[in-house]
Amino acid sequence: MAKDKSPRGKGTPATLALLDAGVAFTSHSYEHNPSSTSYGIEAAHALGLSPAEVFKTLIVLVDAQPHVAVVPVDCTLNMKMLAQAAGGKRAEMAPTDTAQRLTGYVLGGISPIGQRTQLPTVIDNSVLDLDHVYVSGGARGFDVGLIPQDLLQVTSAMVAQIAVGRASPPAPTA
């Protein structure tokens, strides 16, 4: 995997955090369709990747405390499993404005890497079955690829089964 060659000071907080950590990654840009509502599925289709290797980043409140959940884009986050993995009783999605304020990213571009506030992070255990994983690089239409172990290290994440079901992905929007 090639290291991003962008000069220091340029890039997203995610790519800068990866550079600071000395993590090898690949950059993948695509034309984001503003009418798309499934950002992760859109990324998988646009980049020609399996939805199982592209992960979405969700900001969730576990017992009212913000957490990051990272799951494959073709799966659903199981709130009970997440709450249990995080040592809580109840989980619910954080409001959009809260997610954006805590992370410093816009919806559809929230990366688990380089967030404004370091939040406890749980990544679905299916990540361990992959050679490479792709997550938002910190902007709509931009993903980064890296090895799962590096994603776990740079996010200080714990691994647990938090995703269920493989969704039937919608057709890509033109």
Structure description:
The chain is of the alpha+beta class and 174 residues long. It has one domain (13-164): YbaK/aminoacyl-tRNA synthetase-associated domain (YbaK protein). Helix content is 24%, strand content 26%. It has five helices and ten strands. A five-stranded mixed beta sheet has the order 5-2-3-6-9. The longest helix is centred in the N-terminal third of the chain and has 9 residues, at 13-21. The radius of gyration is 15 Å and the shape is globular. 43% of the residues are buried. Residues 1-8 and 168-174 have low confidence and may be disordered.
CATH class: Alpha Beta
Please mark out the parts with pLDDT under 50 across 5 or more consecutive residues, or reply none: 1-8, 168-174
Overall morphology? globular
Main beta-sheet annotation: 5 strands, mixed
Order of strands across the widest beta sheet?
A: 5-2-3-6-9
Task: Kindly state the number of beta strands.
Answer: 10
* Portion in strands: 25-35%
CATH topology: YbaK protein
Order of helices and strands: HEHEEEHEHEEEHEE
